[in-house]
Design goal:
Elements: H1 8-22, H2 33-43, H3 54-67, E1 88-91, H4 107-117, E2 125-131, H5 139-159, E3 168-172, E4 192-199
Length: 201
Protein backbone atom coordinates (compact mmCIF):
# COMPACT_ATOMS: atom_id res chain seq x y z
CA UNK A 1 0.00 0.00 0.00
CA UNK A 2 1.43 3.37 -0.99
CA UNK A 3 1.45 6.24 1.45
CA UNK A 4 -0.59 9.37 0.68
CA UNK A 5 0.40 11.53 -2.30
CA UNK A 6 3.66 13.42 -2.28
CA UNK A 7 3.81 17.11 -1.49
CA UNK A 8 5.43 19.66 -3.79
CA UNK A 9 8.35 19.71 -1.38
CA UNK A 10 8.77 15.93 -1.75
CA UNK A 11 8.74 16.22 -5.53
CA UNK A 12 11.34 18.96 -5.38
CA UNK A 13 13.58 16.89 -3.17
CA UNK A 14 13.28 13.95 -5.53
CA UNK A 15 14.31 16.16 -8.44
CA UNK A 16 17.41 17.24 -6.52
CA UNK A 17 18.25 13.61 -5.82
CA UNK A 18 18.01 12.73 -9.51
CA UNK A 19 20.30 15.60 -10.45
CA UNK A 20 22.86 14.30 -7.96
CA UNK A 21 22.62 10.80 -9.44
CA UNK A 22 23.38 12.08 -12.91
CA UNK A 23 26.16 14.45 -11.80
CA UNK A 24 29.84 13.60 -12.36
CA UNK A 25 31.47 11.58 -9.62
CA UNK A 26 32.88 13.57 -6.70
CA UNK A 27 34.99 12.64 -3.66
CA UNK A 28 33.03 10.62 -1.13
CA UNK A 29 33.16 13.36 1.50
CA UNK A 30 31.49 15.77 -0.97
CA UNK A 31 28.60 13.49 -1.84
CA UNK A 32 25.34 15.00 -0.49
CA UNK A 33 24.01 12.19 1.69
CA UNK A 34 20.75 14.08 2.12
CA UNK A 35 19.93 13.70 -1.58
CA UNK A 36 20.32 9.94 -1.34
CA UNK A 37 18.18 9.85 1.79
CA UNK A 38 15.38 11.72 0.02
CA UNK A 39 15.46 9.27 -2.87
CA UNK A 40 15.51 6.30 -0.50
CA UNK A 41 12.44 7.64 1.27
CA UNK A 42 10.59 8.03 -2.03
CA UNK A 43 11.40 4.47 -3.15
CA UNK A 44 10.46 3.08 0.26
CA UNK A 45 6.98 4.63 0.05
CA UNK A 46 5.65 1.37 -1.41
CA UNK A 47 4.93 -0.77 1.62
CA UNK A 48 3.67 -3.90 -0.17
CA UNK A 49 4.69 -5.59 -3.40
CA UNK A 50 2.32 -4.77 -6.30
CA UNK A 51 0.57 -7.43 -8.34
CA UNK A 52 2.85 -7.03 -11.34
CA UNK A 53 3.63 -9.77 -13.88
CA UNK A 54 6.78 -8.61 -15.68
CA UNK A 55 6.73 -11.49 -18.16
CA UNK A 56 3.13 -10.66 -19.08
CA UNK A 57 4.02 -6.98 -19.58
CA UNK A 58 6.91 -7.99 -21.82
CA UNK A 59 4.62 -10.17 -23.91
CA UNK A 60 1.99 -7.43 -24.05
CA UNK A 61 4.51 -5.00 -25.51
CA UNK A 62 5.72 -7.60 -28.02
CA UNK A 63 2.17 -8.44 -29.12
CA UNK A 64 1.33 -4.78 -29.68
CA UNK A 65 4.43 -4.25 -31.80
CA UNK A 66 3.74 -7.38 -33.85
CA UNK A 67 0.13 -6.34 -34.47
CA UNK A 68 1.30 -2.86 -35.53
CA UNK A 69 -1.43 -1.38 -33.35
CA UNK A 70 -1.34 2.27 -32.30
CA UNK A 71 1.04 3.17 -35.11
CA UNK A 72 1.14 6.90 -34.36
CA UNK A 73 3.43 7.62 -31.36
CA UNK A 74 1.43 10.70 -30.30
CA UNK A 75 -1.73 8.60 -29.99
CA UNK A 76 -0.12 5.53 -28.49
CA UNK A 77 -1.29 4.76 -24.94
CA UNK A 78 1.30 3.47 -22.46
CA UNK A 79 1.59 -0.29 -22.67
CA UNK A 80 2.25 -0.63 -18.94
CA UNK A 81 0.33 2.25 -17.36
CA UNK A 82 0.46 0.60 -13.93
CA UNK A 83 4.19 1.27 -13.72
CA UNK A 84 3.50 5.01 -13.56
CA UNK A 85 1.77 4.57 -10.21
CA UNK A 86 4.86 3.09 -8.52
CA UNK A 87 7.73 4.99 -6.85
CA UNK A 88 10.48 5.44 -9.41
CA UNK A 89 13.10 7.67 -10.95
CA UNK A 90 14.66 7.97 -14.40
CA UNK A 91 18.29 8.67 -15.31
CA UNK A 92 20.39 9.13 -18.42
CA UNK A 93 22.59 6.13 -19.13
CA UNK A 94 24.84 6.44 -22.15
CA UNK A 95 25.24 3.46 -24.50
CA UNK A 96 27.31 2.98 -27.62
CA UNK A 97 25.08 3.83 -30.61
CA UNK A 98 22.51 1.15 -31.44
CA UNK A 99 24.00 -1.24 -28.88
CA UNK A 100 23.50 -2.24 -25.26
CA UNK A 101 27.10 -1.50 -24.27
CA UNK A 102 27.15 0.94 -21.35
CA UNK A 103 29.67 3.71 -21.91
CA UNK A 104 32.37 4.13 -19.22
CA UNK A 105 31.17 7.64 -18.29
CA UNK A 106 27.84 6.18 -17.11
CA UNK A 107 29.38 3.83 -14.55
CA UNK A 108 29.46 6.68 -12.05
CA UNK A 109 25.69 7.13 -12.44
CA UNK A 110 25.10 3.39 -12.01
CA UNK A 111 27.36 3.39 -8.96
CA UNK A 112 25.27 6.09 -7.34
CA UNK A 113 22.12 4.10 -8.14
CA UNK A 114 23.75 1.10 -6.47
CA UNK A 115 24.49 3.25 -3.39
CA UNK A 116 20.79 4.08 -3.13
CA UNK A 117 19.67 0.47 -3.63
CA UNK A 118 22.18 -0.68 -1.00
CA UNK A 119 20.74 1.60 1.69
CA UNK A 120 19.66 -0.50 4.70
CA UNK A 121 16.05 0.70 4.35
CA UNK A 122 15.85 -0.66 0.81
CA UNK A 123 17.65 -3.97 1.25
CA UNK A 124 14.34 -5.89 1.54
CA UNK A 125 13.07 -4.24 -1.66
CA UNK A 126 13.23 -5.39 -5.25
CA UNK A 127 13.33 -3.16 -8.31
CA UNK A 128 12.46 -3.18 -11.97
CA UNK A 129 14.93 -1.73 -14.49
CA UNK A 130 12.93 -0.37 -17.44
CA UNK A 131 14.55 0.37 -20.79
CA UNK A 132 13.06 2.80 -23.31
CA UNK A 133 13.83 4.24 -26.73
CA UNK A 134 12.57 7.21 -28.65
CA UNK A 135 10.25 6.77 -31.64
CA UNK A 136 13.00 6.86 -34.25
CA UNK A 137 13.38 3.73 -36.36
CA UNK A 138 11.49 0.43 -36.33
CA UNK A 139 9.33 -0.42 -33.33
CA UNK A 140 10.43 -4.07 -33.21
CA UNK A 141 14.11 -3.17 -33.24
CA UNK A 142 13.55 -0.50 -30.59
CA UNK A 143 11.72 -2.96 -28.36
CA UNK A 144 14.53 -5.51 -28.60
CA UNK A 145 17.20 -2.86 -28.03
CA UNK A 146 15.47 -1.49 -24.95
CA UNK A 147 15.31 -4.98 -23.43
CA UNK A 148 19.01 -5.51 -24.07
CA UNK A 149 19.83 -2.14 -22.52
CA UNK A 150 17.73 -2.83 -19.44
CA UNK A 151 19.47 -6.20 -19.12
CA UNK A 152 22.87 -4.50 -19.44
CA UNK A 153 22.09 -2.01 -16.68
CA UNK A 154 20.94 -4.85 -14.47
CA UNK A 155 24.11 -6.82 -15.26
CA UNK A 156 26.35 -3.87 -14.36
CA UNK A 157 24.53 -3.34 -11.08
CA UNK A 158 24.92 -7.03 -10.27
CA UNK A 159 28.46 -7.78 -11.48
CA UNK A 160 30.22 -4.47 -10.87
CA UNK A 161 28.30 -3.05 -7.91
CA UNK A 162 27.27 -6.33 -6.25
CA UNK A 163 23.52 -5.76 -6.04
CA UNK A 164 21.83 -9.13 -5.50
CA UNK A 165 20.36 -10.43 -8.78
CA UNK A 166 17.32 -11.59 -6.81
CA UNK A 167 16.41 -7.94 -6.20
CA UNK A 168 16.49 -6.80 -9.83
CA UNK A 169 14.25 -7.51 -12.79
CA UNK A 170 14.54 -5.94 -16.23
CA UNK A 171 12.10 -5.11 -18.98
CA UNK A 172 12.35 -3.19 -22.23
CA UNK A 173 9.35 -1.24 -23.49
CA UNK A 174 10.94 0.31 -26.56
CA UNK A 175 8.81 3.21 -27.76
CA UNK A 176 5.61 1.66 -26.36
CA UNK A 177 5.68 3.82 -23.21
CA UNK A 178 7.25 7.12 -24.16
CA UNK A 179 8.44 9.22 -21.24
CA UNK A 180 7.61 12.35 -23.25
CA UNK A 181 4.81 11.38 -25.63
CA UNK A 182 4.39 14.96 -26.84
CA UNK A 183 7.95 14.85 -28.19
CA UNK A 184 8.39 11.21 -29.30
CA UNK A 185 11.90 11.69 -30.70
CA UNK A 186 13.25 13.60 -27.68
CA UNK A 187 16.32 12.25 -25.90
CA UNK A 188 14.41 11.94 -22.60
CA UNK A 189 12.59 8.96 -24.09
CA UNK A 190 15.83 6.96 -23.97
CA UNK A 191 16.22 7.23 -20.21
CA UNK A 192 16.38 4.21 -17.92
CA UNK A 193 13.80 3.94 -15.16
CA UNK A 194 14.30 2.30 -11.78
CA UNK A 195 10.92 1.31 -10.34
CA UNK A 196 10.34 0.14 -6.78
CA UNK A 197 8.53 -3.19 -6.51
CA UNK A 198 8.29 -2.98 -2.75
CA UNK A 199 9.63 -5.40 -0.15
CA UNK A 200 9.82 -9.07 -1.00
CA UNK A 201 6.85 -11.06 0.33
Amino acid sequence: MMRPGRSLRDIGLLAVALIELAAPAAPARAQPAAANENLVNQLAALEAAPDLDVAALRQQALDRVKSKADATPLRRPPVAAQLRKLPQFAVDVQFDPDTSIVRPQSYGTLGRIADVLSHPTLLPYSFLIVGHTDATGRRDINLALSQKRADSVRDVLVTTFKISPKRLKAIGLGEEQLLDAIHPTAAINQQIQVVSLGPAP
